[in-house]
Amino acid sequence: MAVEMKLPPVLDIIRSNIVKYGNPLALKGGEVAAWAKSLNLPAQGELLFYTGGEYQLLPYIDTLVKTMTKVDQASKGFSLLMGVRNVLDKAGINAEKMYASVLAKDKERYNTVCYKAAVILRQLGYELSYSGEHELYSGALLYELGYWDDLRAYAPKVANVIAQSGAKTIVCLSPHAAEVFKYVYPKLLPDFAFEIKTFVELVWEKRDLLPQVDYAAPVVIHDSCRLARELGIDEQLRDILTSVGVQQREALRNRKWTTCCGGPNKLLFPEISHEVAERRVNELTHTEAETILTSCPYCLSALENGNAANAGVEDLIEFLYRGVKP
Questions:
Q1: Is the C-alpha dihedral spanning 262, 265, 267, 268 positive or negative?
Q2: Does the pLDDT value for residue 77 go beyond 60?
Q3: How many CA within 13 A on the CB side of residue 283?
Q4: Quick one: average pLDDT of 10-24?
Q5: In terms of C-beta density within 10 A (0-12 exposed, 13-18 middle, 19 or more buried), how is residue 25 classed?
Q6: 45, 165 in Cβ contact below 8 A?
Q7: SS3 of residue 298 by DSSP
Q8: With contact defined as beta carbons under 8 Å apart, do 87 and 19 qualify?
Q9: For 172, phi and psi rounded to 5 degrees?
Q10: 221-235 pLDDT, tens per residue?
Q11: Domains along the sequence of the chain with CATH
């Protein structure tokens, strides 16, 4: 007799939210796009600034995972929790959003990463457009978690929003979005012919125009596996830091041989994820660098959660913004 395999409920919650609401935590478009209000970015243009809501959503996802792990998923209490969720959902109220919104930390920080990235690119001379509250999450988690049928149905919705911008190039803040747009969407949508760039690539192309960063201590790069392995972007980060006059150290495992940050395990095995992150932070701080830099929202969040060494952990965007005068 065939055995039915059931995935952890947290995965189904995230899957259903992406399909129904356009992002993993059912946030409204206005909430995800709030960071851009003061910039007045046009809705149309050849270069589309794409956040996918990934930096903005991370504090909520972290809180959701912590909440789910505190409840025995085989218990009556968990069944009741899921039952309440279903009732609230039918009433148009998202239970995860309600709970996570109260407890989520660092929302302001993750939102300002998007703002800082846009400011940096504009000061380098790039003319950005942005879909604002209409922007949809890329669906990268559907791809990474194996929900192919859902992604196949979801991808045209994302592509339609992008097409309305009139863009020829999409600049992605997250390497997860860049990967799924560059390698997966063209297989699902033959007319998805946009040029895909990452924030790192655009900055690297104009790195000689970057202002110097006044930071005397050495830094160390944690290479994101998606950025280094799947997208082949590693040396560019080091070139950028050299351009802004910053000392660098190298971890033993770097570039394409980078060690995992623990992020991929977070949804299924949060305890293991935390342990992996701690080990990676220890590897990085062993270089005696004072600040760890990465260029991926999930790496940033995972390393922060595993930062028992109290090292400085920043996104490359945050670090480069130190030299910017808005």
A1: negative
A2: no
A3: 19
A4: 85
A5: buried
A6: yes
A7: helix
A8: no
A9: -100, 135
A10: 999 989 989 999 999
A11: 9-61+104-203 (no CATH), 207-321 (3.40.50.1860)
DSSP 251: -
- Distance CA(200)–CA(204), nearest Å, equals 6
Residues in the chain: 326
CA-nearest of 66, 152, 69, 136 to 102 is 66
248's CB contacts (< 8 A; 6+ apart) are 218, 219, 220, 221, 238, 241, 242, 289
Q: Any idea which residue has 């940033």 for tokens?
A: 300
> Residue 306: which residues within 8 A CB-CB, separation 6 or more?
261, 262, 273, 274, 275, 276, 277, 278, 279, 280, 281
Return the closest-CA partner of residue 237 out of 314, 316, 170: 316
Long-range contacts, stretch 32-37, CB < 8 angstroms, 24+ apart: 32/56, 32/57, 32/133, 32/135, 33/130, 33/132, 33/133, 33/135, 34/111, 35/111, 35/112, 35/114, 35/115, 36/114, 36/115, 36/118, 36/130, 36/132
